Amino acid sequence: MLNLNETHDPKLKSWVETANQPGCEFPIQNLPYSVFRPRGATEGFRPGVAIGDHILDLRRLYEADLIHGAGKRSLSVCTGTTLNDLMAAGNESWSALRLALSRALRAGATLEDKLRPMLVPQDQAEFTMPAHIGDYTDFYTSVYHATNVGKLFRPDSPLMPNYKWIPIGYHGRASSISVTGQKFPRPVGQLMAKGATEPSVGPCERLDYELEIGIFMGPGNAPGTRITMDEAEKHVFGLCILNDWSARDIQAWEYQPLGPFLAKNFASTISPWVVTLEALEPFRTAWERPETDPQPLPYLASEQNRAKGAFDVQLQALITTEKSRASGAEPAVLSQSSFRHAYWSIAQLVTHHTINGCNLEPGDLLGTGTQSGPTDAEAGSLIELTSGGQKPIDFPWGEKRGFLLDGDEIIMRAWCEKPGYPRIGFGSASGTVLPATPL
């Protein structure tokens, strides 16, 4: 775990004026990374860092030779077309670059005139995946989500006996993960209708979203080695928003005995911005486990994790439909929760993933699973909010939904905030459902 330093000073202001506005997602205390290029440009994608409503082009910054010392060495790995090299550079490099960028972008910085031409307005940029994701693992860290969904799938035993002992996860499909703005056809697969004696093949009828956090890995571990709890966060580069779309009817038929497959691998949407753990330091909170529950086995336990292993990241899911967009209606909020409710922490996910010697690599993505909270309004999926589609949600523009229809758009947002400190935002991740491709 890192300590607070000068980059976290809540009094810092930037010479990029929009970064100082109340409620700005990207103040100088944030500095999240993405991979972008000016919209419509023929030039290649390159790493950038958000400041206010602009993006600082890190490739141009390196080529200008304006940053020196440790910051320059860290900046030298920001000239490619992904963030993988930066992710691999490690914690000391990340901190050195953050410090150099913070000093260069502060109000009164001597580099202001030279850096201004390197800024690109965010609304004039297009984004691609921030990293090449070699592998993707999705976990199941919300005990509330696990219990709620378990009641629908297994009324007699909603929470499996291993849940409170082991971080449950499955190997997902990295190739179908895309950045915000993703549009995908409704998935088709095998379905077993209620009362049927054999399955049919057709478009999913119970399409859902899942409100999650994505965890981008930094330096990995060699095959056969393990990452301990005390070292785990040094291997984590940062967090993004993740929507792991789910076909609930396909899932119900296929998930036993080996778990999710085609119900989960057709599309996943992430935000273009990756917020570093260092930026989230002020929003750490205690990781809690009820005393009546099994306590973590020794390899998943540490005092620092219990003291400050959780992060209070607010998560929100919204919806628009073809009708709402045509009428100009505002997106409707579906739910809002917090990552602080997770039953398993980031460090525990990383440590458990490597207990068998599995090697993680820079750019690998871990999903937290749906982040539902303890109340009904904090459910992170439609299957929970609508009791499996039995209690559709009414929207202000006169429609209702049990599950998603073609043309529906899900928007996810995330942020951290507390009194006396600037808001730290993650941007948004949006995706739209298209009609199924005919068989």
Structural class, from secondary structure content? alpha+beta
What count of domains describes the coordinates?
2
Outline the biggest β-sheet: 8 strands, mixed
- The end-to-end distance, rounded to whole angstroms, is 51 Å
Strand percent estimate? 25-35%
Using only C-alpha atoms, the radius of gyration works out to 22 Å
Please name the CATH architecture of the largest domain: Alpha-Beta Complex
Q: What is the 3D form?
A: globular
Helix content: 10-25%
Figure out the total of helices.
11
CATH class of the largest domain: Alpha Beta
Q: How many strand elements?
A: 26
Mean pLDDT: 96
State the low-pLDDT regions, or none: none
CATH topology of the largest domain: Fumarylacetoacetate hydrolase, domain 2
- Corresponding CATH superfamily of the largest domain: Fumarylacetoacetase-like, C-terminal domain
